[in-house]
């Protein structure tokens, strides 16, 4: 029987199970990262096992029953592609929720809680037992309003913030992102983000580390007033799609990477799909690509009924092994998708030599590599076409969005048509020359991207500085190695900071320990060939790609962004040291 899967088998998981049971919702059981409780029972429900792949249970819905705000954020981000549309809410029948309130996904509202009219509640928010949220309040994603807390009218609670037991916030106040309001505190004025406020009236130290509290998100976009002003200005114009900002962004980005053409698209995934169409990939065609990547670099082949052929990687860099590429070519091979993993260019020269020898198209998946260079050449300029992506965790962001760059005039024209429902340049709005897609990049995203692109060297330098702080500290830690930079990489574009766990270090147990200490982390990547869909359809199995699989078991991404402070890196590495040495103190 299908049912809801509860992620987290601790105390909060039991509360959520009780809420759902009170509404006679069928439950499958719990998942938890703690091996000690696997296959045990909670409230008569089984703990099915670890939390790495909740989607394999084919539940009708999922809910994050994890008390830590940062842990909920990490887990939600980890499964954004696979279960994002299946988060369910747990609202106790003895809670009062106004009809005009807007409730997000994965929200838990416990018994006795009150949510008054015109409130807006974000995703994965907890409103605990007896808490009161008065009219017109806004509570952003991953926040927690603890038992008995009271938010007066028009209060805004930032992302990941915690309002403690019995705390009170007077009308109109704003609680910043990841701030903590202590138990019993009375908030009489706005509280900045990342601080702990205590007392009556509530007071705080501006430096969050004064209270030993340093909530650290997995990633954060670097947005200034300039980006906000650019988007606001655009909203005052009639041009919200296919306007001048898109054209300017495309031209400016193409000039930055030294390509002839840029074509803005709705995501990196859509860009890769269009590249497969341009390359003529169809049924029976094979496309060589690494399994150690985000799943879109293989899915795009399936969209055109081709077959992705996975090859193994260099165990140090995580990029595809050129020798494996050469060995994988058959008479059915149509193209090679080269992924520049983590912002480090793959070894392109031998791959391009294979492509020339067999007359294959080469597509660069440069979604993680804006600004990177290989032997002095920009990533994205060594192939028939390349795709960049601008999700909020990337080096620069447009919110959602991507861009295809190419020097091939005919491909650029095709991309412009395909992204716009198949309209050619002279087609009227309701005429369509070919099968196309709604893959356009909107004007707001383009306006945001233009400002970010103008700051790109600053953004890359800031990320390089954070990576350097990590490098210094990781060198002193036992059991893990810092990222390996190949000699062919003349500029690393830091997308994520990924360490390698040594033999004898259980990566998943280390992640659970860090999570208990308030530090998010993530496996990077889970090999595509071991994803259930690919195993079932193509028969891939563990042992087929040993270097890829070892990387999938041992690589670990730590919190990373251009807005991280050195003190936050210190905090992450201190927790990492304690976890590796088995020291107590998780909270």
Taking the sheet with the most strands, its summary is:
7 strands, parallel
N/C terminus separation: 37 Å
> Under the CATH scheme, which class of the largest domain?
Alpha Beta
Give the tally of β-strands: 37
CATH architecture annotation name of the largest domain? 3-Layer(aba) Sandwich
Helical content band: 25-40%
Total helices: the number is 15
CATH superfamily of the largest domain: Type I PLP-dependent aspartate aminotransferase-like (Major domain)
Q: Cα-atom Rg, whole angstroms? A: 25 Å
In terms of DSSP E residues, the strand content is 15-25%
Write down the CATH topology of the largest domain: Aspartate Aminotransferase, domain 2
Structural class: alpha/beta
- Net shape: globular
Q: Domains counted in the coordinates: how many? A: 3
User: In which order are the strands of the major sheet placed?
Assistant: 6-9-12-15-18-21-23
Structural account:
- It is a single chain.
- The chain is an alpha/beta fold and 587 residues long.
- It folds into 3 domains: 83 residues, 3-Layer(aba) Sandwich (Rossmann fold), CATH 3.40.50; 230 residues, Type I PLP-dependent aspartate aminotransferase-like (Major domain) (Aspartate Aminotransferase, domain 2, 3-Layer(aba) Sandwich); 126 residues, Alpha-Beta Complex (Aspartate Aminotransferase, domain 1), CATH 3.90.1150.10.
- The protein contains 15 helices and 37 strands.
- The protein has a 7-stranded parallel β-sheet with strand order 6-9-12-15-18-21-23, covered by helices on one side. The protein has a 7-stranded mixed β-sheet with strand order 24-32-31-28-27-25-26, sandwiched between helices.
- Helix 1 links the parallel strand 1 and strand 2.
- Helix 4 runs parallel beside helix 10, helix 5 crosses helix 6 and helix 7 runs parallel beside helix 8.
- The chain is globular.
- About 1% of the residues have low confidence.
């Amino acid at each position: 029987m299908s049912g809801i899967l509860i992620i987290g088998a601790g105390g909060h998981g039991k509360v959520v199970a009780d809420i759902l049971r009170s509404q006679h919702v069928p439950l499958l059981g719990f998942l938890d990262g703690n091996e000690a409780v696997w296959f045990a029972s909670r409230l008569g429900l089984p703990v099915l096992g670890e939390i790495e792949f909740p989607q394999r249970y084919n539940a009708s819905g999922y809910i994050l029953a994890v008390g830590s705000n940062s842990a909920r954020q990490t887990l939600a981000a980890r499964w954004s592609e696979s279960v994002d549309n299946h988060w369910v809410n747990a609202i106790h029948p003895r809670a009062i929720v106004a009809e005009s309130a807007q409730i997000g996904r994965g929200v838990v509202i416990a018994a006795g809680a009150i949510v008054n009219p015109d409130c807006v509640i974000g995703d994965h928010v907890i409103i605990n037992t007896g808490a009161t949220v008065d009219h017109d309040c806004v509570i952003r994603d991953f926040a927690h309003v603890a038992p008995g807390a009271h938010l007066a009218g028009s209060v805004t609670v930032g992302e990941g913030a915690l309002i403690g037991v019995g705390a009170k916030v007077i009308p109109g106040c704003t609680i910043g992102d990841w701030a903590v309001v202590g138990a019993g505190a009375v908030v009489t004025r706005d509280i900045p983000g990342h601080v702990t406020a205590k007392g009556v009236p509530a007071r705080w130290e501006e430096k969050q580390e004064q209270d030993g509290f340093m909530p650290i998100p997995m990633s954060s976009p670097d947005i200034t007033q300039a980006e906000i002003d650019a988007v606001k200005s655009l909203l005052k114009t009639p041009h919200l799609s296919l306007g001048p900002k898109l054209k300017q962004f495309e031209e400016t980005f193409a000039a930055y990477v030294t390509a002839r053409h840029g074509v803005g698209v709705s995501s990196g995934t859509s860009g890769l799909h269009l590249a497969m169409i341009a390359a003529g990939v169809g049924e029976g065609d094979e496309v060589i690509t690494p399994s150690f990547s985000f799943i879109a670099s293989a899915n795009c082949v399936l969209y055109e009924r081709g077959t992705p052929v996975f090859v193994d990687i260099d165990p140090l860099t995580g990029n595809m092994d050129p020798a494996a590429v050469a060995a994988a070519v058959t008479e059915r091979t149509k193209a090679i998708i080269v992924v520049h993993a983590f912002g480090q260019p793959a070894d392109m020269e031998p791959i391009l030599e294979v492509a020339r020898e067999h007359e294959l198209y080469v597509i660069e998946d440069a979604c993680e590599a804006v600004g990177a260079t290989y032997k002095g050449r920009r990533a994205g300029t060594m192939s028939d076409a390349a795709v960049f992506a601008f999700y909020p965790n990337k080096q620069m962001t447009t919110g959602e969005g991507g861009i295809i760059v190419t020097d091939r005039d005919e491909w650029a024209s095709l991309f412009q048509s395909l992204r716009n429902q198949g309209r050619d340049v002279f087609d009227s709005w309701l005429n369509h020359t070919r099968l196309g897609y709604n893959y356009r990049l909107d004007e707001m995203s383009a306006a945001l991207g233009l400002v970010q692109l103008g700051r790109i060297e600053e953004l890359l330098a800031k990320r390089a500085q954070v990576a350097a702080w990590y490098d210094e500290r990781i060198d002193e830690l036992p059991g893990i190695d810092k990222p390996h930079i190949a000699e062919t990489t003349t500029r690393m574009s830091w997308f994520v900071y990924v360490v390698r766990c040594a033999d004898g270090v259980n990566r998943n147990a280390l992640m659970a320990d860090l999570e208990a200490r308030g530090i998010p982390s993530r496996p990077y990547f889970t090999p595509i060939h071991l994803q259930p869909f690919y195993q079932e359809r193509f028969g891939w199995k563990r042992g087929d790609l040993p270097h890829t699989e070892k990387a999938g078991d041992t690589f670990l991404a730590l919190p990373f962004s251009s807005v991280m402070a050195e003190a936050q890196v210190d905090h992450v590495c201190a927790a990492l040291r304690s976890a590796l040495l088995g020291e107590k103190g998780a909270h």
